[in-house]
Structures are given as structure tokens and as C-alpha cells.
Amino acid sequence: MCNLYSITRGQEAIRRLFQVARDLTGNLPALPAVYPDTMAPVVRIAHDGERELTMMRWGFPPPPNRREPLTNVRNVKSPYWRLWLKTEWRCLVPATSFCEWSAGRPKVTHWFALGESRPLFAFAGIWRLWSGERKGEAGRHELFSFLTTEANEVVRPVHAKAMPVLLTAAGDWDTWLTGPVDEAMALQRPLADEMLRVVAAGDKTDGTLPA
Q1: Distance from C-alpha of 148 to C-alpha of 1, rounded to nearest angstrom
Q2: pLDDT surpassing 60 at residue 97
Q3: Is residue 79 packed enough to be buried (19+ CB in 10 Å), middle (13-18) or exposed (0-12)?
Q4: What is the rounded CA–CA span in Å between residue 126 and residue 128?
Q5: pLDDT at residue 135 in the model
Q6: SS3 helix, strand, coil % of the chain, rounded to 5?
Q7: How many other C-beta atoms can be found within 10 angstroms of the C-beta atom of residue 136?
Q8: Rounded-to-integer distance, Cα 183 and Cα 189, Å
């Protein structure tokens, strides 16, 4: 499953592409490596109906038998996830590439993107409020995770089990943020093979590009 991704386009590009009306991220730097339990930008619908860009921490709280945050969601029929699939808890997670490690030894990173120029796309995300301690910070946290699905033919040779749900079109972003549950869940599918490629391998970051 994806536990590393990058977002290297500037916040103005993010605001413009995802039609963000309100930016709460401050001075957002490029993030060539986003790991679980770190902060990253997320697009959600605010209480006033506007799209806002804000920072959240990656990973839902783990169940009692786990210690690591839950970064990915596959079984959306599970009662654990059903509540967070409602419209008010859906979000878009902007990204420019994501990483999967090869299954063999030694494990090698492979970075996947829509093209060599790393165009923006979004993971189909969900978010929630949670109170507790994360990374040494006690209090109220906003946490996000994102959906996965079966791997397409580009990802499968590296990671056969799954890949993130990538949304690349404005209509899909609208559906995910505001559509009925059945229409939103229909987006849980692999990206078409011809839309994805391996753009780097062997690195733990995917380099910064101009906005």
C-alpha cells in the first residue's frame, strides 16, 4: 500500500486546479516526501460550502491491535469506515507522485506519476476529527486517509496488491466531494494504464519542480 507520496507543485497551482476559495495552509513548501503521521495539504468543503485548502495529519488512529496510523482504506464496506464515507468527511489529497516499494530483496522505491512533468492529481481522501497524542502533540487533530483499489498493469509488477485511487478530472473531484455515496464509491477503481508511468526509482524523495 502507498505510504509515501510527493506534492511538489506550488500552492497557487493547487488552488487554481482544485478551485480553492480559501487557503489556510500559510506558506506551503514543496513536499518531495510525505510520510505517514506528517502534515500535508488537503482540499475539503467547509461549512459555508466553499472549498478550502488546509493542513491535516496523514493517518487515521489505529485499531487496538495496531500501532501504526491507518493511511489507506480498501474495504469500504467495513463498519469502521462507513461513517467517514459521508459527504462531509470526504476530501481531496493533492499529489504529484506516489511511491511503492518492490516486493523483492532489496526493496527498491518506484515513483509513479501522470507524466515526467508531474502534473497534479488527487487521491480520493477521507478525514476525521480525533483527540489524543500524535507525534508528541496532545489535543484535537484533523486526520486524513485515502482509498486504495486493485493495482493496474503499471503498478502491478512493483506492487501487486493495491494502488491508491487517483482522481484526475474536475468532474471526478466534484463527484467525490459532493456526490451521493454510490456515485462516489464508483470512483474506487484503478487508473487507466495509459495515464500512469514510472518516473523515478531508487530514491526516497521525488524531486522538487517549478510551480
Answers
A1: 8
A2: yes
A3: exposed
A4: 7
A5: 79
A6: 15, 40, 45
A7: 5
A8: 12
What residue spans of the chain are helical by DSSP H?
11-17, 79-82, 170-178, 181-185
CATH node for 5-201: 3.90.1680.10
Q: Which three cell numbers stand for residue 54?
A: 488546509
Most confident of 13-27, 93-107, 134-148: 13-27
Tell me which long-range contacts 57-62 makes (C-beta under 8 A, separation of at least 24): 57/134, 57/135, 57/141, 57/142, 57/143, 57/144, 58/34, 58/143, 58/144, 58/145, 59/143, 59/144, 59/145, 60/84, 60/128, 60/130, 60/143, 60/144, 60/145, 61/130, 61/132, 61/143
Rounded distance, CA 203 to CA 4, Å?
Answer: 11
pTM greater than 0.90 (yes/no): yes
Residue-level pLDDT at 2: 82
Cα angle 190, 195, 196 (rounded to 5 degrees) comes to: 75
Instruction: Determine the 3-state secondary structure of 195 from DSSP.
Output: helix
Predicted confidence (pLDDT) per residue in 50-81, tens digit: 999 999 999 999 877 777 889 999 888 888 78
Residue 210 — very low, low, confident or very high, per pLDDT cuts 50/70/90?
very low
3-class state of residue 6 by DSSP: strand
- Residue-level pLDDT at 208: 59
